[in-house]
Design a protein that fits this description.
The protein is α/β, with parallel strands linked by helices and 726 residues long. Among the domains are: 164 residues, Alpha-Beta Complex (Nucleoside Triphosphate Pyrophosphohydrolase), CATH 3.90.79.10; 116 residues, no CATH class. The protein is built from 28 helices and nine strands. The protein has a four-stranded mixed β-sheet, with helices on both faces. The radius of gyration is 32 Å and the shape is elongated. The N and C termini lie far apart (97 Å).
């Protein structure tokens, strides 16, 4: 803010062509420090012993020339003073409407300049930056700001009302004041809040409220820093979820008990453009390839009917895969699934036990030993929708559980107890920034999915449907598995690889939802290699995953807003995508074990049950790979594509064909400059090498089938033509 010798402030009206806040009156000049400038514009972090920020002043002088044509030499005689920093946000609703995609959220350094008395400053405004300028007194500014029809920048309105007039009352004293160390935080005026709930409720007052809380701590204290970072993280999560979104926006959220973020599904047009996938969906739902249920409900009691109903509600697409299992096995797996889904509901609910984490741990540890099998036990107030009803009526699940064969009950109880203990161990760990490292990441996946693989394998073998070879060791040597040589070869290593592949895929896909829940799993050892800050939420920012840059059209709607894409693209990077691709490569390294496990299966229904999730997982990884939408919601594969994979997952040839297809796709799509290119290439080429023989045989078989159908069609047409001629 530049004053003349008489104490008048120089204002400017921003040019009409500006992308954000055009035609608004505001302070003298706004600048942004740039790297690589001479003189240097970058200052070290502010502390209580910091000198005047010369870098900021250099940036201001550069911008004064750019916007107003003020030569640096004309400012040499001016007094300058750094006053402090302000933190504000505002949406440009006056220009772009109530759902404005543009706005500002920044920390500004405030500088006062004053010219000597009697000095006339030459001004040569840049018409691409400034429409008009004016020198005003404090009284004239107040009158102008009260005048209807004039537009004012939201930051200047706040600065004027909160700080400027106090300084202006005695500029000599203001220039002698020590700079304020803390950051003043202000929320936007009401007119600059977005519509649709995005800035309603708590979201509309987060900065002002934070500033009040910060005043109870020394600015440079660890307690103040933690308070600020926690508030920033919570605000970021709120912005990413339906907690501060409109009802219409929330309607697009991922469906299910804990759906809080949008789902990125393929459009109907994209699906209908693939007729073979549409045909596969129809065959799966209505044709001879539909999965038939082997669950006998003809003499079922109320408890079993409840279990079957809830299976369909909480599992949806996977329910049919469970029901098609052999009659002697289907009930065991159905109950196992519901028991673990109930346990998972307790673990996942981050609201019901908020502030009562000790109670949550107690429930998780008691679930397998005490609650399971107790036909009088149930739980209310935890979970949402069908999951909540499952816990409210868990006595029905226990009733069916008690009727299972002893071997299956023993396995289900053992696995449930171990999983509950593992989940409880993680409750007390701050997971807001992910697991600590790759080892902790693998251990968590074992606790919630590897153990499931162990339990299923033991039931398959114990009930006589599969051989003990299924319990063997794979290429991956897991620290949580018993050594094969000490346990007769039954390390259950392959079973754990099956579970870990699925869980890692889910964690990769659910980055945003997990982060928004405050319980993330991307390992810090990995993401900190790519991120530019110490905050996992950085990866969700558009400038971290290619927004506005070539090759990533889904990261920013460049077609509808090309000017915006050009602006955003200037500061964009791809650190989020690099991190994502590394984790996908890490998951792909488990595929050889997965394929070995599937090759050992001998019961068709068990093979289909085991293969379908694995094929879906490799398809999901291919959908997620190098995809910015992972950081803005939950990506989904096309339903028709899923139907094709389900139909083909009845045999090893079809499974190999899909793994081969997606491995080739991943290898082809991997950017050559990706930091993990070699890791991705090695993992995909290994999969291609394992699957290529059966995949090619499958392709030849399909080609022969199409030729036969084509020949039959041609023959039919020929017969019809001959008949009509006769």
């Amino acid at each position: 803010m530049l004053f003349d010798g008489d104490g008048r402030l120089l204002l400017q009206q921003r040019a009409q062509c500006k992308v954000t806040f055009p035609k608004v009156w505001t302070n003298t000049c706004c600048s942004h420090p740039l790297h690589g400038q001479t003189p240097n514009e970058i200052d070290p972090p502010r502390t209580s012993t910091s000198a005047e920020p010369d870098g900021i002043k250099h940036a201001a002088v550069r911008k004064l020339k750019h916007e107003l044509g003020i030569e640096p030499a004309d400012l040499k005689s001016a007094s300058s003073k750094y006053m402090g920093r302000v933190h504000y946000w505002a949406a440009d609703t006056l220009t772009h409407g109530p759902n404005a995609p543009w706005g500002e959220h920044e920390i500004d350094y405030l500088l006062l300049y004053q010219l000597p008395k009697g000095y006339t400053l030459p001004l040569r405004p840049n018409p691409e930056e400034v429409m008009e300028s004016a020198w005003v007194s404090a009284e004239e500014l107040k009158a102008r700001m009260a005048q209807e029809g004039l537009l004012w920048s939201p930051w200047f309105r706040v600065i004027a009302s909160e700080l400027l007039y106090d300084w202006w009352a005695d500029l000599d004293a203001a220039f002698k004041r020590p700079a304020e160390l803390s950051i003043r935080r202000f929320d936007a005026p009401a007119v600059h809040c977005k519509a649709g709930g995005a800035h309603s409720g708590a979201a509309a007052t987060e900065l002002s409220d934070l500033y009040k809380l910060e005043q109870s701590h020394e600015w440079e204290s660890a307690a103040r820093r933690k308070l600020t970072l926690d508030a920033e993280r919570e605000a970021r999560r709120r912005d990413l979820t339906s907690a501060s979104r409109s009802a219409s926006s929330a309607a697009a959220n991922k469906q299910g008990g804990y759906g809080k973020v949008p789902t990125h599904e393929h459009s109907k047009k994209a699906q209908l453009a693939r007729p073979l996938e549409v045909a596969a969906g129809l065959r799966l739902k209505f044709g001879s390839m539909a999965l038939l249920s082997n669950l006998d409900l003809s003499t079922a009691d109320e408890a079993l009917r409840f279990c079957d109903l809830k299976l369909g509600e909480v599992s949806r697409s996977f329910a049919a895969v469970i029901r098609q299992l052999p009659k002697a096995l289907v009930l065991d797996i159905l109950v196992f699934y519901l028991v673990l889904r109930a346990l998972d509901t307790i673990e996942d609910d981050m609201d019901a036990f908020k502030g009562r984490e000790v109670d949550k741990c107690a429930h998780l540890r008691a679930f397998g030993d005490k609650y399971l099998g107790d036909e009088a036990w149930s739980m209310d107030g935890v979970g949402q929708g069908a999951e909540r009803e499952l816990l409210q009526n868990f006595c029905a699940v226990s009733r069916v559980f008690n009727g299972l064969p002893g071997s299956s009950k023993e396995v289900i109880r053992d696995i449930t107890t171990k999983m509950g203990a593992g989940m409880a161990d993680n409750v007390s760990i701050d997971m807001g920034q992910g697991t600590a490292d790759l080892a902790a990441y693998a251990w968590y996946c074992h606790a919630v999915a590897g153990l499931v693989g162990e339990g299923l394998t033991q039931i398959f073998v114990g009930r006589g449907f599969e051989t003990a070879a299924l319990c063997g060791q794979g290429e991956q040597v897991w620290p949580f598995c018993k050594p094969a040589e000490e346990n007769g070869g039954r390390s259950l290593g392959l079973a754990n690889s099956m579970g870990l592949f699925l869980q890692k895929t889910n964690i990769i896909r659910d980055y945003l939802e997990d982060y928004a829940d405050g319980r993330a799993f991307w390992p810090q050892q990995v993401w900190r290699q790519f991120a530019r800050s110490s905050e996992l939420g950085e990866l969700a920012r558009p400038t971290a995953h290619g927004a506005g840059s070539d090759g990533y059209p889904t990261a920013f709607d460049a077609q509808n807003d090309p000017d915006g894409a050009a602006v955003v693209g200037k500061g964009v990077n791809k650190q989020a995508l690099s991190c994502l691709n590394f984790l996908i490569a890490d998951a792909l390294e488990l595929v050889p074990d997965v394929l070995t496990y599937l090759e050992l299966l001998r019961t068709p229904e068990v093979f289909r049950f085991s293969a379908i999730p694995q094929v879906m997982a490799i398809g999901t990884l291919a959908e997620c790979f190098d995809n910015p939408r992972v950081f803005t919601g939950v990506v989904k594969i096309r339903k028709g594509l899923a139907a094709q994979m389900i139909l083909d997952a009845s045999g090893l040839g079809g499974v190999h064909a899909w793994f081969h297809h997606f491995a080739l796709q991943l290898l082809k799509c991997c950017p050559k400059d990706d930091p993990s290119h070699d890791k991705i290439s090695a993992a995909t080429q290994r999969i291609i090498g394992i699957t290529q023989d059966k995949a090619k045989a499958r392709q030849r078989k399909k080609a022969c089938t199409w030729l036969m159908w084509g020949a039959a069609a041609v023959g039919s047409v020929g017969v019809l033509v001959a008949y009509r001629r006769s």
